[in-house]
Amino acid sequence: MASLTRLLEWIFFLYFFSHIPITLLVDLQAILPARLYPQELLDLMKWYVVNFKDHLMMNPPAWFMSFVYSEAILQLPFFPVASYAFFKGGCKWIRIPAIVYSAHVATTVIAIIAHVLFGDFPKSDQLEPLTQKDRLTLVSVYAPYLVIPLLLLVTMLFSPRYRQEEKRKRR
Length: 171
Known about the structure:
With 171 residues, the chain is mainly α. It has helices at residues 2-25, 39-52, 55-58, 62-75, 78-88, 95-118, 132-142, 144-158, 160-163.
């Protein structure tokens, strides 16, 4: 069981550590002025939007932008902290922040996936309407950001490594 928990900690470390550049270089393009990014990153975003038909990143609606602002303000500062905790392993103090993070992210990503699967996308000159295959492909892009936080939540709630109560000194 300890080796499984350590494997999960490495997965969580990679998830959080890789999320730092993804957020800064890609996700924040939805809310920050384009002049802040080099042309190569703007081209990467355009390639992604066209190939995966991600209307949300191309013309982000207000509700989606609120999720990106939350990512920038609340989640981004947490990423290095969580990276450290899971790299080191067994840091019990990460339990409650990880539960809060995972519940928040899972909730937002469920809304995004529901919109991708069932929502209407505005017609765009640059993007064709989404077929069912396109919708499922786009869901596959967002799915890891639901699956890993749910796995994190389950680990923090049920792993004996994180559930053990620390003994407090009596005064």
